[in-house]
Specification:
alpha+beta
């Protein structure tokens, strides 16, 4: 059972598994729980050769859902993203992919694919703010990359 809700986690995992089987990926959105930051991430992209699932942290649900949906569809069409890759063709901002320091935050992804091994790695989608700064240019080293 999930700490934050009275629903058996296995039911949620099964719903996402069915969506991955039908569409190639699924999108999970969490309200943030104890971290306080909402997360939106894909499940299923890691089944693509060498691709990691994608995560957006702290953004409004509509924006984060749209962003990971568009990127996931590009992956399914054959595009591949690695840590350090940058994109400038989704809107007016430059985006970059960074490794997620605590991949266990993607609970549904880990429940589906990590089994008894270490957590599957993810890539976080980050972008420059209105002043052209990356999140790590504003935050102290070691702080997770959260964007609002």
């Amino acid at each position: 059972m999930c700490e934050l809700c009275p629903i058996d986690l296995s039911d949620i995992v099964e719903e996402h598994r069915q969506e991955v089987d039908a569409d190639g990926f699924s999108i999970v959105h969490t309200t943030g729980g104890t971290s306080g930051y909402p997360l939106t991430y894909t499940v299923g992209l890691s089944r693509q050769d060498g691709q990691r699932d994608l995560l957006v942290s702290g953004a409004p649900v509509a924006l984060s859902y749209l962003l990971v949906d568009r990127l996931a569809r590009r992956v399914l069409a054959g595009e591949h993203f690695d840590a350090g890759d940058q994109l400038d063709d989704l809107g007016r901002v430059l985006m970059r992919f960074e490794p997620v320091s605590h991949p266990e935050c993607a609970v549904i992804l880990q429940a589906m694919y990590a089994e008894d091994g270490p957590p599957l790695p993810l890539l976080q989608v980050v972008w420059r703010d209105d002043h052209g700064r990356w999140p790590w240019e504003e935050l102290d080293a070691g702080v997770d990359l959260v964007q609002t």
